[in-house]
Fold each of these.
Amino acid sequence: DIQMTQSPSSLSASVGDRVTITCRASQSISTYLNWYQQKPGTAPNLLIYSASYLQTGVPSRFSGSGSGTDFTLTITGLQPEDFATYYCQQSYRIITFGQGTRVEIK
Amino acid sequence: VLLVQSGAEVKKPGSSVKVSCKASGGTFSSYAFNWVRQAPGLGLEWMGAIIPLFGMPNYAQKFQGRLTFTTDESTTTAYMELSGLKSEDTAVYYCAKQGTAVQNALDIWGQGTLVTVSS
């Protein structure tokens, strides 16, 4: 299986900050990479698909980039509702997820 | 499309659980229904998927022999049955649909079903 490694595992940030989360695949996955946001007690929500495409309805402060093995999720201008856990997921082969990055209030 | 799952379950070790996922709207038979679970405080774990049109499930290796996916087109419902339950199977189980418009990302999720395995 393809291993997905996110970093950091958690981070503290303030409202208005620019936040970057990285995701590395154990082998090349082209752009078969998706990002999800999950808030406590709720199902994950798709933010970004195919590495850089914003899902309908997702605010433009979220962006994604990367290809091959290295990917980035950026939140530009963190909002109170963005404090959550973020997961990357590859769909190049059998689906696997990263371990998650928890974004906490500083 | 909306996915609505069955309610929470409490099961004994060694027993089985069957979770349902009813789809409303869209073309049920062509959707790829995935099942993902999340143990308390932990991350997301993909269990497998099934497309009703083809009926051939794809199970993650870890669950081979214990996991069964079925679908019922008459009620537009997908089912996940896990047998030989252990305490480590305590988790929230989600169904999620892959969307062709989003390059097969998981674009619609059910609300989750908590399965507790306890003696």
Amino acid sequence: AQSVTQLDSQVPVFEEAPVELRCNYSSSVSVYLFWYVQYPNQGLQLLLKYLSGSTLVKGINGFEAEFNKSQTSFHLRKPSVHISDTAEYFCAVMKTSYDKVIFGPGTSLSVIP
Amino acid sequence: NAGVTQTPKFQVLKTGQSMTLQCAQDMNHEYMSWYRQDPGMGLRLIHYSVGAGITDQGEVPNGYNVSRSTTEDFPLRLLSAAPSQTSVYFCASSYDRNINEKLFFGSGTQLSVL
């Protein structure tokens, strides 16, 4: 079965500092990968997705992620965070184009002024 | 455009009570799904539907029923609530279950079962 691991449950970071949120998945086959963000008291929104092609994917709000097949990772990065980036971030995977979306446990990003 | 609408936002139940969580979308999406969100466990898929009249089980279907009589609505029924069902529930939809489509989420229903 597919599984998604997010190694850090909480990440505090100072405003304007860079951040990396880690995601690893378990699969021996090709997968489709996603990052979603959940702002307080809201539903999830898609940040970015990797389907195929370039391993560096750019998303909304200045976030990007890099797919590394050999390390089965899909880490999310932002070079300079803002207070408004404080949220819960979820990594997710689909095994095939018509498969269920499986979510990781989430990483809570807190941006400190 | 309302998107995905969930009601109620909050609900408290006693063990053994039944209730229905409502989900409606106005985007003509074929695919609809229910997730529950628990601390440290992320979102787990309860049930999903790929179109009116078609439903299927997700990762954690026990204790929940669904039906899809229209494209717009996908209610989630708790037949006999248990404390283990205390959670935040999210409804999500997409045009179809295609990787090129993204999931649109409702704002959630916070359920407490005493």
